[in-house]
Amino acid sequence: MKTIRLFFVFALLLLGCSIAQAQLGRRIGNAMERAAENAVTRQAERRTSDAVNKAIDDAFDNSNNNEKNNNNSNTNANQPATNAPANTDNSGNAGNANNAGAQQSPNTPPKLESFTQYDFVPGDQILFFEDFSQDAIGDFPDLWTTDKSAEIRTINIAPGKWLHPTTKDGTFTYMNTIAFPQNFIVEFDYIPTHESPGFGFTLYNDPDNKELDTGLFPGDQGLRIYFNNSWWDLSAYKRDADQNRGSSEKNAIVRYSVNHIIIWVQNRRVRMYHLGEKVVDLPTVLHPNTTFNRFRFFGWGNEDLPFISNIKITTAAPDVRSKLLTEGKIISYGINFDSGKDVIKPESYGAIKSIADVLNENPDVRVRVLGHTDSDGNADANLDLSKRRAAAVKDFLTKNFGIAATRIETDGKGQTEPLAPNNTTEGKAKNRRVEFVKL
């Protein structure tokens, strides 16, 4: 009897071990299966990341070769735009005609109907312009400073020269002060190069005249703007006062593309525009009596090492009606074109609409549209480009706002009537313009 009991106990022990072993095996099998799935996922992510990185490398490599192409394009006004990325023309109707080989016919109207929320109107004064054209490839720009490192490069997906940080967490500041008015517009182009892009821009007042302030909130007051591929975040600050905050998720930054960012400051109000729409409108975000005299870019806490260029600061919202009807002439820096072409850029809508409003309210008024360029490139090609751009503005006014064609004359002056010397980037920016003259 005792032997039988021992046999049953031993059998039960064996059965329990078998069950436990089976359960352990299933757990190990499940764990191995999960591990295999995770490994496949990680491998797919690595392959995706490698593919993305390769695409970016292909896009941004060979800067020196691009610079050679740019230099060659400066001497050939008929070279196709895809082979001539050197001379950017983002600040008005002017610029050179080096990309004239990829022109749109003046008879083809620009299609900007979907950009009606570009309601800002740049003024008739350029306060600052920077496209790094005066700086050598591979150098840090002369008029800027940083606590990290960066260099000027060219790229094959956009024309011109670009400031490119080469290390993370840097601050990049223009060294000279600027007398910002209460009403102004800032525009710049930003190309992110990381899967999770993010960068920042600060307007601030510097009472101590520090060329480089790396603090989170520099100066004694300012506006700090952070942007990435998910949202826009704004912080308005002033010494001994609470921060005012605002944010938006509308039309966030697009990876690996040229993002044209526009900031309109009007007293306490801040509006921002991106991808054809207003993305931020905060009527009282700035503290009362906020003033600015400096700006900077920053990249703290981000992996992104972007490309930045075509930074333009102008006065805003000119009295178009008074200038055109009373003074008989208005200069516009808000009508922009694709480089070397007569294709009107979307952000030009507000400036053209302001002219159309005056003409519609005053049906007896006739105007002449005049195009002007800087001195870069071939003089004859620039003259032709300025004429075609003036004609493009007329076409847009007639086809989109119903202005009779008989009320508008057009002409182009090319580089023959500069407003400033063409030996600086700001001088060239002032010469690239569209004028409306009352007849």
Walkthrough of the structure:
There is one protein chain. By secondary structure, this protein is of the alpha+beta class. It folds into three domains: 59 residues; 175 residues, OmpA-like domain (60s Ribosomal Protein L30, Chain: A); 195 residues, Sandwich (Jelly Rolls), CATH 2.60.120.200. Helices cover 28% and strands 27% of the residues. The chain is built from six helices and 19 strands. The protein has a seven-stranded antiparallel sheet, with no helix packed on it. A hairpin with a 5-residue loop joins strand 9 and strand 10. Helix 4 packs across helix 5. The longest helix is centred in the first third of the chain and has 59 residues. About 24% of the residues have low confidence.
State the shape. Answer: globular
The averaged pLDDT comes out at 81
SSE succession: HHEEEEEEEEEEEEEEEHEHEHEHE
Uncertain parts: 6-106, 111-116
Can you tell me the number of structural domains? 3
State the helicity in percent bands: 25-40%
Strand order of the largest sheet: 2-5-14-7-8-9-10
The counted number of beta strands is 19
Question: Which key features would you list for this structure?
Answer:
single chain; 439 residues; alpha+beta; 60s Ribosomal Protein L30, Chain: A; Jelly Rolls; 3 domains; seven-stranded antiparallel beta sheet; six-stranded antiparallel beta sheet; 6 helices
Write a brief caption for the model.
This protein has 439 residues and is of the alpha+beta class. It has 6 helices and 19 strands. It has helices spanning 2-60, 63-73, 320-327, 349-361, 379-401, 425-431; strands at 122-130, 144-146, 150-153, 162-165, 171-174, 183-191, 198-205, 221-228, 232-238, 244-248, 259-266, 269-274, 277-282, 294-298, 307-316, 329-332, 367-372, 408-414, 433-438.
